[in-house]
Every structure is written in C-alpha cells, then in structure tokens.
Amino acid sequence: MILGRRERAFLLGSLFHRHLDLEAIRRETGEGFDWSALGAAAAPAGLGPSAWNAAREAGIVERIPAELRERLAAAYDRNTASNAATLALLRRAQRVLAERGVEALPLKGAAVMLHEPGLVPLRHMDDLDLLVRPRQVQAAKQALEAAGWVVVGEPVSFGGVPVAEDEHARIHHGVALRGPTDLLLELHHALPSQPGLPRLADEGLFSRAVERPHGGGTVRCPSAEDLAAICCEHALVHHRAQLMPLPRLVADLQALVDAGLDLTRARPHWDPAVAQVVEEGFELLEETREAARHPGSLGRGQVERVLSPLWRRANLAWFTLRAWVGAPRIFAEALARHGWRAIIPTRAYMAARYGVSPSSPVLPLLYAWRPLRGAVRLVFRR
Question: Could you report the per-residue pLDDT of 256-266, keeping only the tens digit for each?
C-alpha cells in the first residue's frame, strides 16, 4: 500500500508534537485522504499514538473511520499507561540500587520522556535501559535480584558466549532482568555504539547528569546533550542497518531541543566520531522537518522510507543477509576467544543460564536448543 503526499506529510508532521501545523492538518485531511493507508503505515512504524495525538489536537478525529479511530486511540492509551508504569518502575529500581550505593542512569526512551513529559503518550518503548559503572554491574544485579527482579539473560556475552569479568569493556549489554510488571530491564555498563566495540561511560557523563521532576520527586538522568549523543549512536551506529528506529530518533531529538538542548555546550564533551554521528542525527531531523512540510517522491528521505512497505521489506531482507554473511566472522571470533567453550558451554553455565539443576536430565535438550535458537534468531531477527 502506497502513501500519498498528504498522508506522508501528516505522519511525518505528527513526530513534532509541540509544533503541529493544525491548519495544514485540517486542510489536508479532507476529501480523498486515505486513512486506511495511513493506518497501515503508522502501525509498523510505531506512529499510531502520534497520529492520534495530531488528529485530536487538530479536532478532526471524527473524520477517521471508526475502526481505525478505535485502534489509534487504544494505541495512545496503551502507550500512556505502559510508559507511566515504566517510569514508576524506574524510580523503584533507582531507589533499590541507591540503597546499595549504585548510581544508575536511565538511557534512551525513559530518559527522553523525563526531559520531555509530553512524549509519555507517544513514544514506544520495549524495555528499560539503565547505565551503571562497570565495577558496579554485579552489585546492581545482586541488589535487583534481592528486590524481586529475575535474571533472564547472560550476565555478559559476546556472540552468545559468556566472557570473563575483565572483558566487560568490549560488550555494552550487561545483565537482563524482569521485574514486577514483566518489563525487561537491561543493565548497561557502556553506551550503545558499534556492536562489540562500545563506548564506555566516563565519570563526566555521571557528573553532568541532571535531576528531572517525576511523580512528586526527581529522577536522575543524563543531560539533554549526553542523551542526544546516546540516542544518535543507538540508532545510527548500533542499529545502522535498520530503518525502524529513525522516526523515534527524530522525535527524541526534537523533544530534547524543546527541553533546552545546547549543542554548542555539548561538543567539547564528544570525541570526533561521536560529534559526527550527532551531526548526522540533526541532519536527519532537519530532513524530516522539511519532508513534513514538502513531501516529495516516496522514499526521498530516510524517515519517509519507513512509511513504505516496499522499503521496509527490502531493508529487512538486507539486514538478514548481512547477519548471515557476518555470522561466520562472529563465530570465528568466539572460537578464537573461547575455544570449544564457544560451542559447548559448561554444565554449570547452562544450569545457571536456564535455571535448572546441573544434574537435570533436561540439560542435553537445552544444549540442542541453543543452535536451533541461534538459527531462528538469525533468520527472523528475534
């Protein structure tokens, strides 16, 4: 299904929730506006709540067909409730960790919403990311486990293989846990950047952290400037091959600008590689802002491509091909680093990983399951 110019302008413009052109929305959503195509494009891109917000602000919700109107409103309400619960869980996790002397800063979506509460109903989130100092990863894990969180992933892994404590600096993902609401909480000790080669958070990032109001108290999170770099690296470096994070990045950067982001103040804190990717992010922001005002031929801008099923399918195919091509290299690196343990982990590790007894008869089945699981993830990216 192909979106026309008016439908693309509506969806792209909805990303800028504090800068909606209400008169243009009312004018362009008149006769001939294809709401069905808009709904089909909005859902996979995570833009349902933004589309509903734009329609509601412009006072044109009655123009939306009843079934789609219900879906968009439901997506908006779900986001509102889910993100409110996530931020409440964040405050609880921070309190638990602070009692053990561990400072934890939220990353990406949760932190952006603290800087700009207007994003709470609009921004989709899959999990909660917390940054802790590398030396405090294990203390944080133990504190959360004692408070009821359950570990669901390898403490630290590279290509699916557990690594030694002194190799923490090579991996940005740390411990994954599930809490009271079943939301996945990921402890990070480095910032999302090039896969396998993360950028460790220095003390400067923690010292520049700011207090943001929430729930009658405050939550400590990275400054708007540091957060812009984190979001740009996540979308444009760590997930370079994917299109889907781009609309979210545009909305995040605009929200941080609205919250007072000062790029001039931030640049001295970034090395040249980080500064370059932030510049790329703000070029994308400007490109999307211009496309919302004057949409061109489909696929001209990167975020416009997310709205095209053809572009999305081509991107997924390319991403899957890259994964297959890169798999031998990752496996070779794992073999070189860990030897035969890259293929057959110890029974103690398997027991801890899957929560069974080391003498359990289920363990042989779990050994067989690992390569099958890897193949499924490689093919379906899950």
Answer: 999 999 888 88
